[in-house]
Amino acid sequence: MFKIYICTIALFVSLDAREFYVDDDGRVYITPQDNRKELSSKDSRELENFKLYVDESGAIYTKPSANRKSLAKEQKEDGVLLSKSGEKNNQTFIKNLEFSGLHYFGYTYVDPKNHSKYLGSSSGFDMRRNYIGVKAFLNEKDYFRVTIDATKEIYSDTHRADIFIKYAYLYLDKVMPYTGVKIGIAHRPWVDYEQNNSWFYRSFNKVFAEEGLSATSSGLGLVNSADLGVNVNTKSRFFSSEVGVYNGEGYNSNKNGANQKNDTKLSLEWRFSGHLLGDGDKKLDKNRDRYAHISTFGMLSHNHKDDDIAIGSAGEFDREFYGIHGVYNEPLYLLGAQYIIAKDRARDRSLTDTLKYRGYSINGEIRAYKDFTIIGRYDVYDIDKISKISAKKTSLFSGNKTIMAIAYRYNQYVAFIGSLKLIDEKDSTNSKDVYMLSTEIKW
After folding, report:
1. CATH homologous superfamily for 96-442?
2. How far is CA 222 from the centre of its chain?
3. Which of 93, 269, 341, 443 is the most buried (most CB within 10 A)?
4. Whole-angstrom distance, CA of residue 207 vs CA of residue 314
């Protein structure tokens, strides 16, 4: 019996990594022959379809016989556990649990140009992201996802890693033709798209619309990556879209109730993408696929509150932004570009100034040598203030950011990146040079 269980465990553990074959009698082998059919499946969720039997010698079969015993103690039928006698156990089950992780660790050195604000240069090791996720599949396509995250970066306000929920949502596939829906703390339409199609390096810099002011960065800071709400996403060959309704401030807002504290208005957000080469319904790999996309995206967030705006104060505003983006990718290189305009429209313009944003970003990468990628990006942005008294426009600050990096893919799970950010701003105290060594782990 010891031999039987060892063989069974080896079969189940190794199915993803090895090919298995079965003959006409149902006996399982690890070597192919003309009379043997391949048994293995790359999708582990199909394993539940295999019923295994064993004879006295320990050989494993997929067909029953008088001298073979079933290895299954329980069977499943229509989502209910059955005992050997076929009676219901009154216990439901999840079709499959899928675990994943994405982790960014590194070393950061910051050289600020205004030492009166930052006291001086600083450096340290940091944990920039630590995603641990699980998907509980309710069937082959529908699932519930929960992802926790933790950060501990230089200039952090806490002495321990901050742990929080990044995603927690139900995904229902094909609620309409080509269309699924996410309900809960879900992706916002733009950030996730750009991270998976044009700018892949959140480990050392966020996408252009999201990157805001911090000790190691600067930018427009218009939106973040997730929020409580509903996201409806459509995929077809030449067109894909996401349209969502959210609270507005994002998953990491520190407000108690945020814009729902004193208002019923929500945030409408969208992305519409044209897939010029007909790949909108595929999962693309930048190292293998050729693709060209044109997208437009935006947000209308009523009664929006940044963290420095008190609830119910004269500083409350309505935020709106609009952007256009294009990306072209070949296995050898990528080129992406975008332009964004935005406005924080004061709700009481007699008491509060209105802010106007605009900027553009160009990024590219070259993969000329196996496992190495050269990365570059250039951002230009400015924020103007419209006076509540005279309606005169004055520059609040303007800046540009140059990013240079080189990435080395160590294996399919691990990558190492060295990067330099040169941030130069006028009318502000946030100019700085930022050097980062980053380790990415994805499983």
Report:
1. Porin (2.40.160.10)
2. 18
3. 269
4. 30
Contact 346, 388 (CB under 8 A): yes
Which are the contacts of 343, defined by CB distance < 8 A and separation ≥ 6?
319, 320, 321, 354, 355, 356, 357
**Which pair of tokens denotes residue 231?**
């996201």
Give first-to-last CA distance, the chain, whole Å.
35
Q: In DSSP terms, which residues pair with 373 in a beta bridge? A: 407
C-beta separation of 142 from 171 below 8 A: yes
- Residue-wise pLDDT tens digits, 13-43: 444 445 667 777 777 766 677 777 776 544 4
Residue 142, H or E segment:
none
The confidence score (pLDDT) of residue 19 equals: 65
Distance CA 79, CA 75 (A): 10
Residue pLDDT, tens place only, 57-67: 767 777 788 78
Cβ atoms within 10 A of the Cβ of 52, count?
A: 19
CA distance linking residue 222 with residue 229, whole number of Å: 18
- How is residue 380 written in tokens? 């230009």
Q: Do you know the residue count of the chain?
A: 443
Question: Is residue 421 within 8 Å of 402, Cβ to Cβ?
Answer: yes
- Residue 192 phi, psi dihedral angles, 5° rounding: -65, -40
Amino acid identity of residue 187, one-letter, is H
Tokens of 221: 């800071």
Domain segments of the chain as ranges: 2-86, 96-442
**C-alpha closest to that of 385 among 412, 411, 363, 352:** 352
Residue 131's DSSP bridge partners are: 102
pTM higher than 0.85: no
Q: What is the pLDDT of residues 200-258, one digit of tens each?
A: 999 999 999 999 888 889 999 999 999 999 999 999 999 999 999 998 888 877 555 45
- Amino acid code (one letter) for 296: T
Distance CA 365, CA 405 (A): 9
